[in-house]
Design a protein that fits this description.
102 residues; 4 helices; 68% helix; YggT family protein; CCB3/YggT; transmembrane
Length: 102
C-alpha cells in the first residue's frame, strides 16, 4: 500500500457519503413521483424534497417530462451513480490514489 496525500482519504469518505445520500434521495424522489397526489410539503416527503429540489428545479427546465413523468430525478440518479463509480468505484480515481498513490 502506497503512502498518499492527507487530503485523499477525507475527500473519498465525504464524497462517498454525499454521493450515496444523493443517490438514495433521488431514488426516493423517483418513487415519490409515482404518487402525484402526495403532499410534498408534509413529512415524510418534505425530508426528501427539501435537500433535492435545488438540483431538480433547474433540471426540469432542461429535461422536459416524458409522457407526463418527471424524469429529472432519474437524470440526477444517473449522474450521481456515474460520479461515484468514476471517483470511488473499484477502479475509481480516488480509490486508485489511496491504494497505489498514483
Amino acid at each position: 500500500m502506497a503512502e498518499t496525500e492527507a487530503w485523499v482519504a477525507p475527500v473519498a469518505l465525504g464524497g462517498d457519503i454525499f454521493l450515496n445520500a444523493l443517490s438514495f434521495l433521488m431514488l426516493c424522489r423517483v418513487v415519490i413521483s409515482w404518487y402525484p397526489k402526495s403532499d410534498l410539503s408534509s413529512p415524510p416527503f418534505s425530508f426528501v424534497v427539501l435537500p433535492t429540489e435545488w438540483l431538480l428545479r433547474p433540471t426540469r427546465g432542461l429535461v422536459p417530462p416524458a409522457f407526463g413523468v418527471d424524469v429529472s430525478p432519474i437524470v440526477w440518479l444517473a449522474i450521481s451513480t456515474f460520479l461515484h463509480e468514476i471517483f470511488l468505484g473499484q477502479q475509481g480515481l480516488l480509490t486508485l490514489k489511496i491504494k497505489y498513490g498514483i
